[in-house]
Description:
The complex is a heterodimer.
Chain A: E1 21-31, E2 38-44, E3 50-56, H1 60-63, E4 78-85, E5 92-99, E6 105-106, H2 110-118
Parallel strand pairs in A: 3-5
Antiparallel strand pairs in A: 1-2, 1-4, 2-3, 4-5, 5-6
Chain B: H1 3-25, E1 55-59, H2 89-97, H3 126-129, E2 135-139, E3 143-148, E4 153-158, E5 188-195, E6 198-204, E7 224-231, E8 236-244, E9 253-263, H4 277-292
Antiparallel strand pairs in B: 1-2, 1-9, 2-3, 3-4, 5-6, 6-7, 7-8, 8-9
Amino acid sequence: MLPPPLVAHHSAAIFEAGKRLTVTGTVTEWFWANPHCLLSLDVKDGSGQAVRWVVETQAPPNMIPFGWSKQSFKPGDEVTITVEPARSGRAVGRLLRAVFPDGKTLVPGGSAGAAAAAGGTAP
Amino acid sequence: MTRRVVVSVVAVAAVLAFSDLMRAQLGFRRQPGAVYDVDFPGATSGPAPRRSLSGIWEFAKGGAEGIQADGAKAMPSDGKPEHELPFTSAGRDAFIANRPTFGFTAVPSAVTNDPMPGCDPQGFPRIVLHNAHTEQILQTPTQVVILYQFNKKWRVIWTDGRALPTDPEQPGWAIKDAPPPEPRWWGYSVGRWVDDRTFVAESNGFDDRPWLDNAGRPHSGAMRVVETYRRVDADHLEKTITIDDPTFYTRPWVALDKLPYRLQSPSLEIPEQECVPSETAKYNKLFGNPAGGVDDTGR
């Protein structure tokens, strides 16, 4: 029997460096936890079907200094996110920017913040 | 002013401006309520108090200084010859057996064997060589106690004159009612003041399961760690960590080299940060497994 994978706490190598994806969706969960916070949201594809995206940030203590909190999102919020998608091709990625309809914007610190500031290539 | 001096001044100004830009882009990490050297440009500090480490200490140059994702700050695992550790044959074998997700030997996260993501104890010295944050140091007549943010851990460094266990692999105190001899995740530690500003702690008796850092550097049960704390002035403390493990390394090597900390307000609150197995399991199910290209069962 294989041990369970320990995929938390990974390097940035699992993401497609430099690739950017911007989508708008409806928040289903904001998981404020270690090792990294997760934002889940439903994004409608071209046929109107909802696709569940899950994007990660950093650990809460590393998010708080940049204005994030457990109350940053609630289910039902509409939000537009910019993501560096995972190489696996699944609907997961690293959150680089979150913009609310009123223009309020959240950007993480660290390498994700630097990546957000540096821009990238839209697919 | 000569042309050379003018050019130098312009160059220094450009570097400073670029540094500010870089700091903003890289997200200068500020522990809520903490102060950093950048907040006191040009300021000088008063003299160091005598034989005192007490206080709440945060990295002087910014809260991200302790992350050390690619390994011990003074010897990152980056493939550079100057950062090649002096492995023994056994040490190199142990290093190769470790599969970190960061550093020069990083593997895909789905196949790591890093014990930390599963919330195994980080142990010492990994607690200060990876994901290190604000610390609080307490002094009693017989102990220096260090409180660490991550997982709310603490260490006791005895200052009552006792000696380190003579056999690091069968450690036990040579005192009445001593605890049973067994290695510990956090080792046994004793310390002393070598002068009025310099405190040196030595530790041995380690469980060999934790990694030294986030890049998979190993240690054996024979490891001895030397911590040197130098109280530079009223506001600053420097920490140096030396690894002495003759089983895995041919000579001692410096993992932290005079890393500066800044004294904080005694009212600064250290945040809570716990590794929670149930949260980790949920994280893996929702994100880690699909990001790593495996399904919820880990296949």
